[in-house]
Amino acid sequence: MYKNTWKKDELFVNPKERKIKDYSSFFPKYWNRRFAEYFLGVIQGDGYIRKNMISITIGIKDKDYAYLLKDLIEEKFGFIPKLHLYDDIFRLEIYNMRIYEQYKSFKNKGKWKIPSLLFPEEYFAGLIDTDGYISKGSIELSQKDNGNMELIIPLIKKFGFFKTNLNLKITNNYIVKGYRNKLWNIHSSKDVLNFFQKIPIKHPRKIRILNESVKIKKNFNKTPNNYNYQKILNFIKNISFTKKDIRDNLGFTRSVVDWNVDRLLNEKRVEKVKFGVFKYA
Q: How far is CA 251 from each of CA 38, 93, 220, 224, 256, rounded to the nearest angstrom?
């Protein structure tokens, strides 16, 4: 069994101040606490809890992560989960009453409960690994607009991200009408580098993209393209605009536009009018 490296009273920060008293979440002493909090993020990100079972859904292109997560559960919890392939998804299934009992209080009918965390960076990494999106130059996390995303605002602030607010995203297409999501995303060099330094994601594909993204951001910081910046500045003067307007009219890539608009926001040369719309300040 795994050696316990914390005391019972340390399982939650300030346990006496917890508003909710009925958590069955004092993790077993032989569990690895860091992984226990990471796995909580995994479950809340893309997990499903039903009677006596926990399942995690992973896309087929992320086979490496599916097997990595399976191995971590076996190593840290001492239990071998079942991994199945259904059409284009992997499903990791855990039929273990001890694990089920520890986590069932934290996700009920899609609603989260977040305990005080000893390793919030691990919890946040679990969310990003399962329900986050990382591209070259940006990171985002979105969830159904049901109050869950508001719970992570204190964490975002604690990590020191410049972007701390949420955006409302409404999907309207031929499949879904009026579906409301809450979205948190970052594009600035400072925030992406901060994420890279503080959040220990484990997803192999997302790690590769993040590493490449950091290289791009570092190059922007070392040799900012003032020509692109000036062209954008001249284009937006005295008008309201979107990032798409800049891309369509000037032909710049998404990452170039995102970086320069973030720079203009930080310099207070532009301001946000409403979601996705900016104006020259």
A: 41, 46, 18, 18, 10
Q: What digits encode the pLDDT tens for the residues 220-260?
A: 444 445 667 888 888 888 888 898 888 888 877 776 788 78
Are the C-beta atoms of 235 and 250 separated by less than 8 Å? yes
Question: In 177-278, which ranges are continuous DSSP H helix?
Answer: 189-198, 204-222, 226-236, 243-250, 254-266
C-alpha distances out from residue 106 to 47, 99, 223, Å:
11, 12, 46
Check if 124-221 and 226-280 are the same fold: no
Looking at the structure, give the CATH architecture of the domain made up of residues 8-115.
Answer: Roll (3.10)
Name which of 45, 215, 224 is nearest 126 in CA terms. Answer: 45
Tell me the CA end-to-end span of the chain in Å, nearest whole number: 61
Domain boundaries, the chain: 8-115, 124-221, 226-280
Distance of CA 60 to the CA centre of its chain: 20
- pTM (predicted TM-score): 0.68
CATH 3.10.28.10 assigned to 124-221: yes
| CATH class of the 226-280 domain in this structure | mainly alpha
Crossing angle (nearest 10°) for helices 120-131 and 33-46? 30
112's tokens: 């989260």
